[in-house]
């Protein structure tokens, strides 16, 4: 329970209790519960979408609020990593300088522009998903995104000699991967073939991005974990967008 609460309070702004005696190992052990945190976020997103649509209908305002909601609930933690990663990787500098740029607390122009583009893509994809698929997409999106992060942590080397993300990488053992994968499969697969497609494509995309970043940086960092999670969620939305507009696409969800 302590590890789960640690994961929940680290990845979100949901506060259940004060944990004053946390160690680095406590954070490392919490990795296995990342998809479970995604489950809680997915339930909140799904409930929020149901309430907003019931009151306002499927309007532009609702789409905007649903894009903002994850930022409020997570404190923009993953988006911060995404912006730092973009600033570093696309700086055109050598590897060590890229890592320094990513560690800088200031956000550069590349990061800001990338965030704006990402939000526009998310808004557009979500706006064009068929109404019957909206809640499903929002439910599985954070689960798959955080499973992608667990995969990146467990299977790719850490780029720095030290850092917050290093303890996650060191303690992401076989049990961590199996438990995270089990939670992901149990809560994603029952939603049907569209959700399964989003899972497979999302994780495949995350693996390719992690491989590319490892080649560029010599490994991954805490910032790149956030970038991979953020981009995977966008890919999940795009899969549901494509499913919505394929002939007979709505039937894929329920078979």
TrEMBL record:
<feature type="transmembrane region" description="Helical">
    <location>
        <begin position="65"/>
        <end position="86"/>
    </location>
</feature>
<keyword id="KW-0808">Transferase</keyword>
<protein>
    <recommendedName>
        <fullName>Adenosylcobinamide-GDP ribazoletransferase</fullName>
        <ecNumber>2.7.8.26</ecNumber>
    </recommendedName>
</protein>
<feature type="transmembrane region" description="Helical">
    <location>
        <begin position="33"/>
        <end position="59"/>
    </location>
</feature>
<keyword id="KW-1133">Transmembrane helix</keyword>
<comment type="function">
    <text>Joins adenosylcobinamide-GDP and alpha-ribazole to generate adenosylcobalamin (Ado-cobalamin). Also synthesizes adenosylcobalamin 5'-phosphate from adenosylcobinamide-GDP and alpha-ribazole 5'-phosphate.</text>
</comment>
<keyword id="KW-0812">Transmembrane</keyword>
<keyword id="KW-0460">Magnesium</keyword>
<feature type="transmembrane region" description="Helical">
    <location>
        <begin position="177"/>
        <end position="210"/>
    </location>
</feature>
<dbReference type="GO" id="GO:0051073">
    <property type="term" value="F:adenosylcobinamide-GDP ribazoletransferase activity"/>
</dbReference>
<comment type="similarity">
    <text>Belongs to the CobS family.</text>
</comment>
<dbReference type="GO" id="GO:0008818">
    <property type="term" value="F:cobalamin 5'-phosphate synthase activity"/>
</dbReference>
<dbReference type="GO" id="GO:0005886">
    <property type="term" value="C:plasma membrane"/>
</dbReference>
<keyword id="KW-0169">Cobalamin biosynthesis</keyword>
<dbReference type="Pfam" id="PF02654">
    <property type="entry name" value="CobS"/>
</dbReference>
<feature type="transmembrane region" description="Helical">
    <location>
        <begin position="131"/>
        <end position="156"/>
    </location>
</feature>
<comment type="pathway">
    <text>Cofactor biosynthesis; adenosylcobalamin biosynthesis; adenosylcobalamin from cob(II)yrinate a,c-diamide: step 7/7.</text>
</comment>
<feature type="transmembrane region" description="Helical">
    <location>
        <begin position="107"/>
        <end position="125"/>
    </location>
</feature>
<keyword id="KW-0472">Membrane</keyword>
<dbReference type="InterPro" id="IPR003805">
    <property type="entry name" value="CobS"/>
</dbReference>
<dbReference type="GO" id="GO:0009236">
    <property type="term" value="P:cobalamin biosynthetic process"/>
</dbReference>
<keyword id="KW-1003">Cell membrane</keyword>
<feature type="transmembrane region" description="Helical">
    <location>
        <begin position="235"/>
        <end position="254"/>
    </location>
</feature>
């Amino acid at each position: 329970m302590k590890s789960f609460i640690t994961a929940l309070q680290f990845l979100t702004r949901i506060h259940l209790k004060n944990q004053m005696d946390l160690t680095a190992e406590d954070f490392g052990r919490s990795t296995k519960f990342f998809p479970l945190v995604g489950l809680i976020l997915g339930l909140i997103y799904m409930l929020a979408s149901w309430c907003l649509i019931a009151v306002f209908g499927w309007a532009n305002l609702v789409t905007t609020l649903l894009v903002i909601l994850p930022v409020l609930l997570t404190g923009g933690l993953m988006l911060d990593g995404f912006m730092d990663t973009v600033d570093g990787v696309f700086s055109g500098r050598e590897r060590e300088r890229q890592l320094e740029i990513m560690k800088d607390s200031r956000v550069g122009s590349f990061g800001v522009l990338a965030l704006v583009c990402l939000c526009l893509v998310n808004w557009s994809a979500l706006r064009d998903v068929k109404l019957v698929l909206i809640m499903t997409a929002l439910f599985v999106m954070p689960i798959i995104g955080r499973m992608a992060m667990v995969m990146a942590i467990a299977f790719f080397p850490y780029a720095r000699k030290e850092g917050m993300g290093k303890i996650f990488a060191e303690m992401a053992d076989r049990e961590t991967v199996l438990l995270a994968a089990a939670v992901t499969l149990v809560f994603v697969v029952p939603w049907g073939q569209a959700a399964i497609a989003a899972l497979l494509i999302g994780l495949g995309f995350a693996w390719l991005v992690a491989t590319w970043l490892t080649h560029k940086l010599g490994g991954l960092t805490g910032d790149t974990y956030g970038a991979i999670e953020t981009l995977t969620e966008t890919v999940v939305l795009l899969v549901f967008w494509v499913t919505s507009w394929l002939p007979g696409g709505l039937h894929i969800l329920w078979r």
